[in-house]
Amino acid sequence: MSAIRSLYRFLRRLARSLLRVWRILSTSYAHERIVDQSNKSHGQLPKVVTLMSFYNHWDYAEKAINSYYRSLDGKYDYHLIVLDDCSPDVEPQTIAKGMSKFDSYMYIRFKKNRGLTRSWNYGLDEAIHRLRADYVVIANDDIIIPNGAIGRLIDGLRMQGSDSIIGPLSNGPGDHAETQDIRNYLPDYAPSDKAQDIEQISQRVSPNAVVKVESVNGFFWAGRSKVFLRNTFRHFIPRRFYFDPVNVNYENEIEFQRRLRKLRPRVKLMVAANVFIFHYKDVSQESLERGRIPDEWVFRSKPL
Fold first, then answer.
1. E-only strand ranges, the chain
2. What is the largest CA-CA distance in the chain?
3. Residue 303's pLDDT band (boundaries 50, 70, 90)?
4. Does 163 score more than 70 pLDDT?
5. Domains defined for the chain, CATH in brackets
6. Of 53, 8, 110, 81, which Cα lies nearest the Cα of 243?
7. How far is CA 30 from CA 41, 60, 84, 113, 303, in A?
8. How large is the average pLDDT for residues 194-219?
9. Which of 138, 194, 226, 272 has a CA positioned 20 to 30 A from the CA of residue 48?
10. Residue 171: CB partners within 8 Å, gap ≥ 6?
11. Residue 159 pLDDT
12. How many CB atoms lie within 10 A of CB 192?
């Protein structure tokens, strides 16, 4: 009986490894760099690059991008990479026009829809190796960022040392991240996406508290570039994979954090209790479930 179990476990690991290799070889990274305004730099300040991937729902993504630029302070050298996973509901010219008033950003549109993990892997490579980011923030497209929130998040990260991942409080942190729920700190919280209400909540949260947690939700999180570089998959092709391509849309940040803790047991997963991010949540969930390519796409697709 034990021999059968051992054989089953071996075959399961082998199947997962083969699936990972298949996904790596069959994932298209063909894209257009529609706009590149990323060459502007602000002195010797540490560079913080935010990745924002979206699929459809440009109206929400535009809100998120506008709030991103309103939130910036003078603490860091901020840059934004917008990753469009081949959205059929909006023309790239519309997006480029909507972003033309901003600077220090890249807008990249993939030619084929291949899921969130592909976007994150490519965006991290751009942030770390092209822009030379010191810190990387990974953000959903259905959020509103209050003033100064990214700066405070990076402040909290810097206080915790190099091997740390950090996230904010939120009204919609996800099922596996209850410790990030704003109601733990403000029981009377009433959800509102009005800018003045979000700013008021942001002012009411704890001033400097950083709390250790078991996991950080992927809707908005940050780490030093070195943390991502130390936790890549090793493959026989040049492109780096920070997130397991087996997880096309879901569980990508959870798998990453588990792998990171296994490789580096002293890593800290933290929540900055002085940072609040409003999260629509259902919007990004719908884009994954309704339009974005499903996790099992590889079984129905020919290699590209």
1. 31-36, 47-54, 77-84, 105-110, 135-139, 143-144, 164-170, 210-212, 220-224, 268-279
2. 66
3. very low
4. yes
5. 26-280 (3.90.550.10)
6. 53
7. 27, 25, 12, 10, 14
8. 88
9. 194
10. 181, 182, 189, 191, 278, 279
11. 87
12. 13
